[in-house]
Amino acid sequence: MTRRELLALALGCIPLRAQPAERPEYLSLADARHVLESFAGELPTGLDRAPDTASWLKWETARDQEIRSRLKRGDADSIVNLVLFGTSFTTRPRLTAKQTETAEDDSEAAGRLILARIQDFARAVFNPGRNERLQFAGAWLKEYGIDPSDPAADKRIVVVLLENIRRVLGEQRAYNRAIDAAKQAGDSGSLFVARSSLYRDRGLSLDTSFRPNYAIERSLAEIKSAGLLRQIRRAAVIGPGLDFTDKRSGYDFYPIQTLQPFALVDSLRRLRLTEAFGPTVEIVDLSARVRDHVRDALAQARKGSAYTVQVPLDQDTRWLPETTGYWRRFGSEIGTSAQALSPPPGVEVRTRAVRIGPDVVKLLRGADLNVVLQHLPLAEDRKLDLMIATNVMVYYEPFEQALALQNIAGMLRPGGMLLSNNALPEVKGVPMRPVGGTSVAYSEDPDDGDHVLWYKRA
Ligand SMILES: C[S@@+](CC[C@H](N)C(=O)[O-])C[C@H]1O[C@@H](n2cnc3c(N)ncnc32)[C@H](O)[C@@H]1O
């Protein structure tokens, strides 16, 4: 153990390695009681109003499997994004947001571009080389019974991709219509509530970018000013996600990466909300891809290797200066500037890279946990000061969100806080209450921002 680690240990900043990791537990019927009572009239089909312990556990395990099975559709959505926006397998332009909105309305140019991209993709996936995204796509195609290394497979690849692209674009338009309808019908509060469960039926996607981390940093600064949090020794990120390829601020010219756990340590240190070596960060995610990624980063860190993140800033977005300021300072408290990878010609993006030292990576630890149904049974002295969940709760209906809040309450110390950019239901008996919020605009686009709510554990 290094001198730094010994000191951190003495300060209580890192857990003893020998300490066994807690195993996730399902929410007990007793702890779910208030949520079941509050949602008595609108429980999901298959769940009794007054279940006994056995039937409750049976429902939870079945629901757990159903939720986890949504990851497959999320994988398909990631591959659709790669086909539409990736640049590692084609020199054709990325689709624009406008083109994805009009493609089904017979925009010929968009249709031709999509088809050409699919054909380039089918050729590339035949021989993926060391491209990890194409390797992932190859494994995904095999699950459809298509062997991408078979030269005769290209027609089937085109069909599968077209089907999925149609589905994703159709879903996207339905979400846009739902938002427009909510805008017409109500005030900004009810729009926020409508947005907060928008993806309740969607595949569980892993997408991430630097944006929500800026909203979290702003929220933490305000929470500190309000005197609600002083020192964070133990934190958790629920669903940090992976930056795979996205139409907004996500690209495939750099290795797949995670950002949020590092962004959180960076912000807490910048705001002097944690000691010099802290905090520990529990990574709570039901995705094996996320957990494996963190596990590999940890294994590398134990061998002394750093973790380098690339932080892209789209050039076609009219960013507000505060967002650009955050982009520029991202990582300054946890690493050193590194040589950024160059985007391919024609890709309008500025890049920065940050080399994060192994001491910071070793603050992370991962748990396989479905926060809707499970929690870590932490001893009182190991309970968390802070949990963050951005773009996670939006995948659930209010009943499931309320169960998640109960699980979160069980992992937080009294006075600990959850930050979420979704509105979550208040349930009598669940000891989590909203105590404030922070609105952050990212760019001049009035729809491009986040509202982060602060929930306090009573
Ligand atoms: C869209 S990503 C959001 C990533 C990041 N938080 C952000 O805001 O950019 C959703 C993440 O939440 C995870 N997730 C979804 N449902 C979850 C659940 N019930 N329990 C734990 N993790 C979940 C996914 O696996 C993924 O890592």
Describe this structure in words.
This protein is of the alpha/beta class and 458 residues long. It folds into 2 domains: 3-23 and 206-457, Rossmann fold (3-Layer(aba) Sandwich); 71-195, no CATH class. 43% of the residues lie in helices and 16% in strands. The chain is built from 14 helices and 12 strands. The protein has helices spanning 3-10, 29-38, 53-85, 97-102, 108-126, 132-143, 154-185, 188-195, 211-225, 260-270, 288-302, 321-329, 358-361, 398-411, and strands at residues 25-26, 234-238, 280-285, 307-314, 335-338, 349-356, 364-368, 374-375, 384-389, 412-420, 432-441, 449-457. The strands form 3 sheets. It has a 7-stranded mixed beta sheet with strand order 7-3-2-9-10-12-11, with helices on both faces. The chain has a 3-stranded antiparallel beta sheet with strand order 4-6-5. The protein is globular. The protein starts with a helix and ends with a strand. The model is unreliable at 5-18 (pLDDT under 50). S-adenosylmethionine (SAM) binds next to strand 3.
